[in-house]
Amino acid sequence: MRIPPALLVLLAFLAAGRAAYGASAEAICQTPAAIFCDDFEAGSFDMWQDGYSPSVHAITTVPANVYRGQKALQATYLGGSNGAGWLTRWFMPGFDHTFARAYVKFEPGWQCSGGACSKLFVFYGNRVDNQWSGFGQAGVCPKGTDYYYAGVATLPWYVQPDPGEVILYSYYPGMPTQPDGQTCWGAFGFLDDPRTALQTGVWHCLEVEVQANTPGARDGFQRVWVDGALKREMLNMRWRDTTDVRTNAFQLSFSGSPGTTEHVWVDNVVVSTQRIGCVSAGTPLAAPTDLRVQ
Question: Which residues does 180 contact at the CB level (< 8 Å), separation at least 6?
Answer without folding.
Answer: none
